[in-house]
Amino acid sequence: MSEIEERRKFLTRMWQVGGGLVAAAGAWTTWDLLQPLPTAGFGGKVRTLPPESIPEKGVVEVSAARAYLTRVNGEVVALSEKCTHLGCRVPFCESSSRFECPCHGTVFNRAGDYLAGPAPRGMDRYPTEIGDDGLLYIDTGSRSDGPEPGSLEIDEPATGPACAAEGGHG
Ligand code: FES
Known about the structure:
This protein is α+β, with helices and mostly antiparallel strands. The chain folds into 2 domains: 35 residues; 106 residues, Rieske [2Fe-2S] iron-sulphur domain (Rieske Iron-sulfur Protein). Helix content is 21%, strand content 22%. The strands form 3 sheets. The chain has a 4-stranded antiparallel beta sheet, with no helix packed on it. It has a 4-stranded antiparallel beta sheet with strand order 5-6-7-8, with no helix packed on it. The protein has a 3-stranded antiparallel beta sheet with strand order 1-11-10, with no helix packed on it. FE2/S2 (inorganic) cluster binds next to loops.
């Protein structure tokens, strides 16, 4: 067999191997996409974001978990959006960087610590974990009570006017 024929045979074999790998990768991806997500809706583990995408001093709402993600001293924390007073949904006020309950005026800081109002404690929390896919999961089936009034995990002043004072939330 001449050198040219050997080279041609070798290249043909390489193309076959490459094609086989592409087909295998495609089949694997298809199979992977068709798998049900290992998550449930509210009440189970809710898949969210890569943890590094949660800003240092911001708040990310995760509607499916009825929760917020924020960072408290570097750690990602999941806060229940349900007010610990009578259960209203507590929005995050961007201008003040505080959670302000529209029902009876309880105010929580960005970490969910109680600041003022009739609520008996800070915002409740859900455990979080990093999945095999590198994403952060919120376990909404396992809620723990928020911190007692008077214990502040962060000490950040309001960044601006309260939304409640403006008559709206945002
Ligand atoms: S329900 Fe939030 S202050 Fe009453």
